[in-house]
Write a structure and sequence with these properties.
6-stranded mixed β-sheet, 7-stranded mixed β-sheet, 503 residues, Purple Acid Phosphatase, chain A, domain 2, 28 strands, alpha/beta, 5'-nucleotidase,  domain 2
């Protein structure tokens, strides 16, 4: 039976154009260049946002004032529609404008408004296929962009609550389309199989959108989950993993039955001359040595690092404290971290600190600091037999290991024999106990300073200073400025295990 509609969907590609994870020079079956979608008049190719930030490639292009290559690659693939992701705002208004102006695809994002009416963004559209099927399409992005993004990067853009914006678009399309599709750069706040609430924050409202609006298909993103061939509340839902490691193929047949599958890129791409040149220049830049360490810094598994500490985080904290003069520093690690060789290359830095973060210094009291440390201690889950694992809140609905922070400048103990909320003890600064009313300066990335990751306590803290240089650049400069860096092996905290021993 012939298909009435075929869609190819990508999301959260984060600038992974080339077939590489950048951790090593080896090629992998990934990247937009490894994706080619057969297309006819009944086919749509759609992207769910987060294309402009998150890879060494986009950092290289942005920091060297080169055009972002993503639009040109998407044009070759013949994308029809895209929406915006929260990370598409990271490099500011002008970068987003250049990207969208260079893109042949139509950007739909109902809850983003440009007060200057310059940015080429619309709310929704009706796409009539060659077979006559009228497809209504609505785009939206999580409004937590306002919480995470620096105001200067938003520029003239206003990011509003997506729910009423989508409701208005649905009403405009009602009775005018045969199929209704949502492209939502946000994820699921409930477990899809049971309906169990996973998060009530409002960051992700995909389930509510399925429950309240007559979407036939909802294409989601942001959480980097693998979701296909799944129906929630009558809506067929899809989500892809990050970094262009898979795409979704969605098919509606003549009877209106919908199916979908996630497919890994399976071809080695042939590159155009400009792409080959950029790739070679990028690899050369990545492998350039920039500094030396007395010993290599290697990542371990997530639980081991959280329990025992990691010199990678200590290096980040050293850099943050030197850059700002703060008394205390906290940092986190991304879900994927390369680590550092003794001879450090650019690749080590940009594949270990992948976010476009800058720094904020807050003045915190001892009481506020204790609240933040208790939130970190929630990372550990202890079952009745005393087995330790990573708490589900950091794994579901998406992997969020970057919400566990490592502190330097203070010493503290986390006692896993105690219940959550009462685990942190013996917090000292320069050997003296930190009193509840005592004041310290604490440096962190600007994302965390907004309270993201359930660190709401920081929202009430005084903002003392900012450093607007990206952390990855601060790391590069620090490594270049020091002959040979010795990162302390001693940990800044102790975790007491359920049996009373130290981790």
């Amino acid at each position: 039976m012939a298909d009435r509609l075929t869609m190819y969907f990508t999301s959260d590609t984060h600038g992974y154009v080339f077939p590489t994870n950048f951790i090593s020079p080896a090629q992998s079956a990934m990247g937009l260049l490894s994706m080619r979608f057969p297309k006819d008049g009944n086919t749509l190719i759609i992207d769910g946002g987060d294309t402009l930030q998150g890879s060494p490639l986009t950092y290289y292009c942005y920091s060297n004032h080169l055009p972002m290559p993503v639009a040109a690659v998407m044009n070759d693939i013949a994308y029809d529609y895209v929406t915006l992701g929260n990370h598409d705002f990271n490099y500011g208004y002008d970068t987003m404008y250049a990207h969208l102006k260079g893109l042949d695809a139509h950007c739909l994002c109902a809850n983003v408004q440009d007060t200057t009416n310059t940015m080429p963004i619309d709310s929704h559209t009706i796409h009539v296929l060659e077979n006559g099927l009228r497809v209504g399409i609505i785009g939206a992005v999580t409004d937590w962009v306002n919480r995470w993004e620096k105001p200067e990067n938003l520029g003239a853009l206003m990011v509003k609550d997506p729910y009423p914006a989508i409701a208005k678009a649905v009403e405009a399309l009602r009775d005018k389309v045969d199929v209704l599709i949502g492209i939502y750069h946000g994820g699921f706040e409930k477990e899809l199989t049971t309906g169990r609430v996973l998060s009530a924050t409002g960051e992700n409202i995909a389930c509510k959108l399925c429950e309240d609006f007559p979407f036939d298909i909802l294409l989601t993103g942001h959480q980097h989950m693998t979701v296909a061939n799944t129906v929630y509340h009558g809506t067929h839902v899809v989500q892809t993993p990050s970094n262009a490691t898979a795409y979704a193929r969605v098919v509606m047949d003549e009877r209106g039955s919908i199916s979908s599958a996630l497919i890994a890129p399976g071809i080695t791409p042939s590159m155009k001359p400009w792409q080959s040149k950029l790739y070679a220049e990028l690899q050369q830049w990545l492998d350039a040595p920039i500094g030396h360490l007395t010993h290599a810094l290697r990542p371990q598994d997530k639980l081991t690092m959280a329990l025992q500490g990691t010199a990678i985080a200590r290096l980040f904290n050293m850099v943050q404290m030197e850059a700002t003069g703060a008394q205390v520093s906290c940092t986190s690690l991304g879900n994927e971290v390369r680590g550092f060789d003794k001879v450090v290359t650019v690749r080590d830095v940009v594949a270990s600190y992948v976010y476009a973060n800058t720094l904020v210094v807050l003045r915190v009291t001892g009481k506020q600091l204790m609240v933040a440390l208790e939130q970190c201690a929630r990372y550990f889950e202890v079952d009745p037999e005393g087995k330790i694992s990573i708490a589900s809140a950091f794994r579901l609905p998406k992997e969020a290991h970057y919400n566990y922070d490592y502190f330097s400048g203070i010493r503290y103990t986390m006692d896993l024999r105690k219940p959550m909320g009462e685990r942190v003890t013996n917090v000292t600064y320069r050997g003296e106990p930190v009193g509840e009313a005592e004041s310290l300066t604490l440096v962190m990335n600007h994302y965390r300073a907004t309270g993201a990751g359930d660190f709401d306590v920081y929202m009430a803290c005084e903002r003392v200073a900012e450093n607007l240089t990206e952390v990855s650049e601060l790391l590069l400069n620090y490594l270049r400025a020091h002959d040979c860096i010795d990162v302390p092996q001693a940990n800044d905290y102790v975790v007491i295990l359920p049996d009373g021993t130290w981790a």
